[in-house]
Specification:
It comes from Chitinophaga nivalis. This protein is α+β, with helices and mostly antiparallel strands. The protein contains four helices and eight strands; from the N terminus they run ββααββββββαα. It has an eight-stranded antiparallel β-sheet with strand order 1-2-8-7-6-5-4-3. Strand 4 (about 60-70) and strand 5 (about 75-85) form a beta hairpin. It is globular and about 40 Å long.
């Protein structure tokens, strides 16, 4: 099955645009992006894993989580939810942090939009970076490859979860 996937970097706008289609209904895809126990099953590119310390999915709430390497190295990040329109859109501010929740600026603004058509759900993600240098460094460190692997993890998780319902 060919599902839509687009990853575009606009350096002038300091923005990454990602569009990904999933063969799953909107409710399931929304849950996968908004529930800690599901996020931890797909967010990190293998062999890394995701570990959420806490998550409060509400406007003003935060998710504090780490990507953990096979050797046990942790890279922490904080996401603060800016707006939420259930099952259609949410926005968050994302920044790296230390293990004590001290934010490392600059960060980035993420805007997620969800739309279902004919049993398939498309997610549009816009990632605006406060700093062009930060965005370039993330891309240089393999953000596209890692995020693509994570989205493949999500596709596999959605397939498994769809079979259960």
């Amino acid at each position: 099955m060919n599902l839509l996937f687009d990853f575009t970097v606009d350096k002038a706008a300091k923005t990454v645009f990602i569009t990904r289609e999933f063969d799953a209904d909107l409710s399931l895809v929304w849950d996968a992006f908004t529930q800690a126990e599901l996020l931890d099953q797909w967010v990190a590119p293998k062999p890394w894993t995701s570990k959420t310390k806490f998550m409060d999915f509400k406007v003003g709430g935060r998710r504090f989580y780490a990507m953990v390497s096979p050797e046990g190295h942790e890279r922490w990040a904080i996401q603060q939810y800016i707006s939420i329109s259930p099952k259609t859109n949410f926005k968050l501010f994302n920044a790296f942090a230390d293990k004590d929740e001290n934010i490392e600026l600059p960060g980035s603004d993420w805007d997620y939009t969800f739309k279902e058509q004919n049993g398939k759900t498309t997610v549009h993600m816009t990632i605006y970076n406060e700093s062009l240098a930060r965005m370039e460094k993330m891309i240089e460190m393999g953000f596209k490859e890692g995020f693509t692997m994570s989205l493949t993890n999500l596709e596999n998780l959605l397939t498994t979860l769809s079979k259960r319902s």
